[in-house]
Amino acid sequence: MGKASEESAFLRGDIGVDGQAVEEVKDEGELEQTKVMEELVRGRTYLGREFLTWLLWRTNDAASLVTIDNEPITVVLVGRVVLRGLAGEATELNVKGVAAPYSAIVRRAIGDGLLLHVARLRIQHGEKLYEATVDAEHLAVRSAKIPKVLSEEDDDKITERLFLAERLSQMVDALFQRFMKVRITPEWAAEVKALRGWIESA
Amino acid sequence: MVPRRMPVLRGSVTYSRFRAEPLGERAKDVRRWAQRSLQRRAFEPIDRKAEDDRAAGWVEIERADLTEFTPSRVLFGEYLLASYRVDRLRVPGQVVKAELDKWAAEYEEQNGQPPKRSEKRNQKAELTFKLRQRAFPSTRTYDVSWNLTSNEVELWVASAKLVEELQVFVEETFELHLHPLTPGAIAEALDAPAGALLPTAGLVGPSLAEHVRGI
Q1: Which pTM does this prediction carry?
Q2: Which residue of A has its CA nearest to B152?
Q3: Is A51 in the B-facing interface, judged by CB distances under 8 Å?
Q4: pLDDT at A26
Q5: Domain map of chain A by residue range?
């Protein structure tokens, strides 16, 4: 390398004072944060996390949030929850236990910037009881339990089971829409403030 | 008869949700259209003489060995139901290695020297081909339900990779687009002002909120 080109390489930061190439060391935390941001922006996953976190807060008092076919729906979060955050010392927290979702450790984690990414919902609709694991990215239904099929005939059993699975999706949608209804209004700021108050009381 | 587990009928429920957007007008005769579409991409067993060790295609929901798709076996009320069958033929590497080592030892004994690398390679190919004829394929089926009234499609699969594969297969079979029902998609359908869908800084943190605003 000629002296002039060596000097310009030094000025660009490609080589150091000793003439050796400078290898750009990417910060591990920065890389992780970029990856997490991309994941959150894709399909607006952050909306899903805000929804599950809001649902945790709103279901704390076991009041009904929505109604389908004139029957109220009550929801309670049960079992395992996964929380994810953007940055910090811990970016994922997996908490198990019967009352894990409402535990102080989960609320403190939310206070530290983590939000619910996966939660198991127990939904009561009239006399029917459903349970499903829902994730913030796709709102996909995993390992769900639906009410027992009552039909006798094989074809009727299939359509009844499909109807119940679809009803479960409708209930998840109804809860999400209930969340969005308040989220897109100016009332959302007050709602967030109240939610944060509940978190901080842990 | 190939037995079916049929998650649509029993067991715990796992599915990913999509909204179907047909690319053209749907045929008036839904029964015939469903049958023809599925038959065009029906499952065909692995050809043991060919190189492919995987075969995939549609089978009937109640019988994984039937591909007639008569309307009564495909249309249930307002639902269209079918199963995506995937067969895999695997010759275990250690079995091939053991057979190859045995052959190499015999070769050396007969010829006084080990086989050349090219001879060993040819023998390996021959052995793999022979073992393929005896191998038993593994069979998995994944259900798909499509509510033809609401146009919601459910892929009864857990793995993200399979969801992606099945999504493409459904789109090609029925000439439609499948839009994942993500929180973003549902929120956008509510016709909310764009600014209202930005992240809540008080919950997700200010850095993400700024990042999304900058996009």
Answers
A1: 0.81
A2: A166
A3: yes
A4: 58
A5: 45-193
